[in-house]
Prior knowledge:
Layout: H1 2-16, H2 19-89, H3 92-102, E1 110-116, E2 122-125, H4 139-147, E3 151-152, E4 156-157, E5 164-171, E6 182-188, H5 189-194, E7 205-210, E8 216-218, H6 241-246, E9 252-257, E10 263-270, E11 276-282, H7 283-286, H8 288-335, H9 353-385, H10 395-412, E12 416-423, H11 426-433, H12 435-456, E13 459-464, E14 467-473, H13 477-494, E15 508-515, H14 523-539, E16 545-547, E17 551-554, E18 560-563
Parallel strand pairs: 15-16
Antiparallel strand pairs: 1-2, 1-6, 3-5, 4-5, 5-6, 7-8, 7-11, 9-10, 10-11, 12-14, 12-15, 13-14, 16-17, 17-18
Helix pairs in contact: 2-3, 2-8, 11-12, 12-13
Amino acid sequence: xxxxxxxxxxxxxxxxxxxxxxxxxxxxxxxxxxxxxxxxxxxxxxxxxxxxxxxxxxxxxxxxxxxxxxxxxxxxxxxxxxxxxxxxxxxxxxxxxxxxxxxxxxxxxxxxxxxxxxxxxxxxxxxxxxxxxxxxxxxxxxxxxxxxxxxxxxxxxxxxxxxxxxxxxxxxxxxxxxxxxxxxxxxxxxxxxxxxxxxxxxxxxxxxxxxxxxxxxxxxxxxxxxxxxxxxxxxxxxxxxxxxxxxxxxxxxxxxxxxxxxxxxxxxxxxxxxxxxxxxxxxxxxxxxxxxxxxxxxxxxxxxxxxxxxxxxxxxxxxxxxxxxxxxxxxxxxxxxxxxxxxxxxxxxxxxxxxxxxxxxxxxxxxxxxxxxxxxxxxxxxxxxxxxxxxxxxxxxxxxxxxxxxxxxxxxxxxxxxxxxxxxxxxxxxxxxxxxxxxxxxxxxxxxxxxxxxxxxxxxxxxxxxxxxxxxxxxxxxxxxxxxxxxxxxxxxxxxxxxxxxxxxxxxxxxxxxxxxxxxxxxxxxxxxxxxxxxxxxxxxxxxxxxxxxxxxxxxxxxxxxxx
Length: 564
């Protein structure tokens, strides 16, 4: 009994765990480890990205500091060169000319150069408006005279235009002890800000260049509003302002912890001046984007799990039920005689591929046999519609084309013309030259008519024996007569000898008929009219073109006669 009960439970379990349920369970087994691995890799990526971000910003800060140091170095070089010029040139006028000529055009960070005299007034400047300016209240100028060395000022507003500026001073007395002049250079703080451009536009990053008093002299473009403000009023930097300004450490990195407990690494690059480049990194803001990515990734994983479950259910339909239905539909089309049907192997699981190949091979073989039969029938139809001697359509083919063009002309209410062409005295030609030459003559006439038909958009055929026809759709009677004359002249130009003809060469007689098809006419009426015109042409001496009705006859001499 226990075995029977177990068997029943097993059967119920199999019914419960159908194909769909089994695939869903398998999908969960496969996806769960991937989800856990993905979560672990995201956390690792977060830690690594923090390390990389700190290293990246440290490198960028170092590059920016080096660029600023190069600016300071170039300013020092220019000042010393100008001081040498002033010491060796003699008069102020001569020194001024040399000063203006000596300012390099490729140093945009130097706004202007000045020579200040003993009275602390500007004696000469690369900007004329600054001449005579009194700088006696500038501390950097006094310090330069006292120390006889290079001095850089803190943040200043220029007296001439109130623009932010940083001044550097170098006394000529450092070269010539008797000189009272001082060389000044105005440093463009906008350019210093440009050098910090690689530190801007980054969340959680504040970068500033401050003077010895803690005033912001330069900042990236997105932080330009900080210029001129005290460091202790700048968000993110206020907590470490005192330590950063008062630090006597050599150039390097200083690490601080903010009052709120978040770790902020400040990288200070102290140049030869008292100014400092400070970069502060708020790790919470820097990692905000990463945290959002992690949150989004968890949501994505949840959606993936849901989609996998749905996909497993759909897969049961697509992988098993749908293939069987497709195979059944294909077999049904085979039974209806549609041999073009194919089982879509590319859309079937591999297990169904052998059956699909077998069905397709069977359909291909049967379809090939059917195509061969159709091709044979088409070939026989073509043979039955073509005259093998002249290469033109035979009477049967011509009649089919006439019926088609008749219906077309009736539909569009257009004219349809027909030329009936007969070789003059062809029986005598055969008697005189033999049937092989007669066949050759008909073949050449067929080639000629074929060419004219192509040029006139017509349809040529051999009506029987030595009689040909040329069907001209959408052609009026006057134009049909002209084409008839073209045919007559073309045959004459072939210059095929015919000793028993009065013209001594092969000629043709042509009857022309034109009709506008309607319900009261038949295609046979057009043939009868053209035959009647041909009969009239024969009785008018042959080698002529005659139009049915009020007949116009064109003979070899081009004369026109009327016939009823």
